[in-house]
């Protein structure tokens, strides 16, 4: 579900996360591996106030593995451990518990040294809408629990989900907002499906995708759509539109009179990208 964020919503969402933070030891920050910075809340460091944090790069099944490795290094350089995962299939999600425990090991050791039996580490998942928070909660819980309630105004009674005996996870995630002001960020989020198409025109999103594909993944684009030639000058909108038309023609997106239906072609391009039909594509590099 996509929400239109207004200053009032942001304040409310922030307050809700701050309430949850009081209950937890470690934050799990969920980002989209294809667009890690664009899917990141601009105020996240300030909001999380120095809580130990594990970054998860989700939907890694759709991202370019080479670029994802660069992102892992990028976050490591910031002092943040980052782990690429695929919440939908559970790939690498088994790694989460040991990583979270590592971040809390000093507290556990202190408890042990005082002769106290350490309790389970308490964790909270935070992230922008559609990044896969509910999917991950369900994956870690081993059953379907989380309602996809992306309404910042909705409060539910909080419950803990036991992840083994060593981690308790809050059953409702913390919902953060992306940075809408930046046009490039908006395009990346629209391309990956984090924000609804209605907020941007289909052809704008497809134009962004095709331009990026020609610049970074030309061969994959050619292979997917059987295009023989790609333009050199991607700053020229007309050249990009020509590629979109070629794709439309190849895929039968034609209106009467033989013209290409650009909206239909755009939808094909967007859907193919999101479904990984062009291969594993990252839309942002460190
Ligand atoms: P939330 O709004 O953050 O709770 O996001 P959801 O858990 O509802 O997931 C949003 C969409 O992303 C759903 O269609 C999920 O099936 C999909 N999704 C979640 N995780 C993954 C993943 O690792 N890979 C892929 N390909 N899709 C995912």
From TrEMBL:
Q: Where in the cell is it found?
A: Cytoplasm
Q: Which part of the chain is the CP-type G domain?
A: 14-178
Predominant cellular place of this UniProt entry's protein: cytoplasm
Q: Which UniProt keyword terms apply here?
A: Cytoplasm, GTP-binding, Nucleotide-binding
**Keyword Cytoplasm applies:** yes
The entry's family comment says: Belongs to the TRAFAC class YlqF/YawG GTPase family. MTG1 subfamily.
PANTHER family recorded: MITOCHONDRIAL RIBOSOME-ASSOCIATED GTPASE 1
What role does it play? Required for a late step of 50S ribosomal subunit assembly. Has GTPase activity.
Q: Identify this protein by name.
A: Ribosome biogenesis GTPase A
């Amino acid at each position: 579900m996509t929400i239109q964020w207004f200053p009032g919503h942001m304040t409310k969402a922030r307050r809700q996360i701050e309430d949850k933070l009081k209950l937890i030891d470690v934050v799990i920050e969920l980002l989209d591996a294809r667009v890690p910075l664009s899917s990141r809340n601009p105020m996240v460091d300030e909001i999380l106030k120095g809580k130990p944090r594990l970054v998860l790069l989700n939907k890694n099944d759709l991202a370019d593995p080479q670029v994802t490795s660069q992102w892992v290094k990028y976050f490591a350089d910031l002092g943040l451990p980052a782990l690429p995962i695929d919440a939908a299939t559970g790939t690498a999600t088994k790694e989460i518990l040991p990583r979270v425990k590592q971040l809390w090991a000093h507290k556990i050791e202190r408890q042990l040294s005082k002769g106290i039996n350490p309790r389970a580490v308490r964790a909270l998942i935070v992230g922008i809408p559609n990044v896969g928070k509910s999917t991950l909660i369900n994956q870690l819980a081993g059953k379907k629990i989380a309602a996809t309630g992306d309404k910042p105004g909705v409060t539910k009674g909080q419950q803990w989900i036991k992840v083994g005996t060593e981690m308790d996870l809050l059953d409702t995630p913390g919902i953060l907002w992306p940075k809408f002001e930046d046009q490039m960020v908006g395009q990346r989020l629209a391309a990956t499906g984090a924000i609804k198409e209605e907020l941007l025109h289909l052809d704008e999103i497809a134009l962004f995708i095709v331009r990026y594909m020609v610049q970074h993944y030309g061969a994959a684009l050619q292979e997917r759509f059987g295009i023989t030639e790609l333009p050199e000058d991607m700053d020229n909108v007309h050249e990009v539109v020509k590629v979109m038309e070629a794709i439309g023609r190849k895929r039968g997106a034609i209106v009467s009179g033989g013209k290409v239906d650009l909206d239909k072609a755009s939808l094909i391009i967007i859907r193919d990208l999101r479904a990984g039909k062009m291969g594993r594509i990252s839309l942002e590099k460190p």
